[in-house]
Amino acid sequence: MAKSSLRNRILQIRVSSCIIVILCLITVIQFFITCGKYNYPHTPRTELVDKLFTGVTPFLASKQSKPDCTYINILQSKKSHHSWDIPRKYDDFSPKGIMNGSYAPEECNPLFSVAILVTYRNRQSQLDIFLPYMHNWLRKQNIHYKIYLIEQEDEKPWNKGMLYNIGAKYAIADKFPCLILHDVDLLPLDESNLYVCMKEPRHMSASIDKFRFVLTYDTLVGGVLAMRSEQYLLVNGFSNRFHGWGGEDDDLADRIASRKLSILRFPRDMSEYTMLVHHPEPKNSERQRIMSENKQHISEDGLNSVVYESIQVKPQRLFTMIKVKL
Ligand code: NGS
């Protein structure tokens, strides 16, 4: 009797030791997986300048009396903000120099013109933080930029891809050579995160506080993405078929890969963002199916086939409003 209870006890100890060893192994493996995505592949700091894509709109009058703007100090800045430093209210915000959501530095000729496209519906409290924060941020970057807010006016399911296509049409008509597709709930934290395009598409929001600053997967392009206008045309923009949450960005990543473009990123300590809290949009249960069907239809479904009703295009001080019904 005593012998068998001793045997049971030894067995129990062995089983629990095995469980502990397995759990430790899983933790170590997870640590290394996370580490890989934490230190995701990126363009080294020293090579960034060569990979930036310069270009301004022909409408921007540059003056010979002024020097070209410089960007080295911005790229080398070590200054980062913490998410808890971000004001929740901007009572003393000054829109100096901003007109129709657009700004250009006065002291020098910028080398970059950037259209920032923000898709929007019913997120007033986030917009109230986003606009002053981004204008304060962008005015320090020596770039010429313009914020377009593309608002879905109808009650139909949310369609971010279509809204980006509509915004891109306006920005391309305004001859912006670079588009930054920007979620309204994301705010950059590192001052070295220069808001410009690179020669290849650039995923900017690689390191978000909500995801413990880990890049969740290599082909992620959602959040904030910078893309040259000619590349947006080349991939035919987003598919118009994704309603609700999810899939449209992964589909865009497929389009980018199919046109043999790669996705570049700045180093992690230049790509940190904070995400403003919000209720998630309802997920699109069809998204995987649409993605697999879409691979054959890039040239028919996208920027060249977006159909919408324009409700209002109205310049406001902090943004150019494009209200549409889909
Ligand atoms: C993927 C979604 C993407 C989304 C990404 C990150 O699963 O649209 O998660 O989402 N793809 C599909 O659903 C097919 S996030 O964690 O940022 O909310 O962007």
Keywords:
8 helices, globular, 3-stranded mixed beta sheet, 326 residues, Spore Coat Polysaccharide Biosynthesis Protein SpsA, Chain A, transmembrane, binds 2-acetamido-2-deoxy-6-O-sulfo-beta-D-glucopyranose, Beta-1,4-N-acetylgalactosaminyltransferase, 8-stranded mixed beta sheet, alpha/beta, single chain, EC 2.4.1.-, signal-anchor, transferase
Q: What does it look like?
A:
With 326 residues, this protein is α/β, with parallel strands linked by helices. The protein has a single domain, classed as Alpha-Beta Complex (Spore Coat Polysaccharide Biosynthesis Protein SpsA, Chain A), CATH 3.90.550.10. The protein has helices spanning 2-38, 48-51, 72-75, 124-138, 160-173, 229-234, 248-258, 287-294; strands at residues 102-103, 113-120, 144-152, 178-182, 186-188, 202-203, 207-208, 224-228, 272-275, 309-315, 320-325. The radius of gyration is 23 Å and the shape is globular. The model has no long low-confidence stretch (mean pLDDT 91). The protein binds 2-acetamido-2-deoxy-6-O-sulfo-beta-D-glucopyranose. Its cofactor is Mn(2+). It holds the Pfam family Glyco_transf_7C.
Tell me, what is the CATH class?
Alpha Beta
User: Separation of termini?
Assistant: 78 Å
Which compounds are bound in this model? Answer: 2-acetamido-2-deoxy-6-O-sulfo-beta-D-glucopyranose
Give the overall shape, derived from the CA principal axes.
globular
**Number of contiguous helices:** 8
Number of strands: 11
Structural class by SSE content: alpha/beta
Helix content: 25-40%
Low-confidence stretches: none
- The radius of gyration over CA amounts to 23 Å
CATH fold naming: Spore Coat Polysaccharide Biosynthesis Protein SpsA, Chain A
CATH superfamily: Spore Coat Polysaccharide Biosynthesis Protein SpsA, Chain A
Domain Galactosyltransferase C-terminal: 202-279
Subcellular location: Membrane
Pathway: Protein modification; protein glycosylation
Domain Galactosyltransferase N-terminal: 99-197
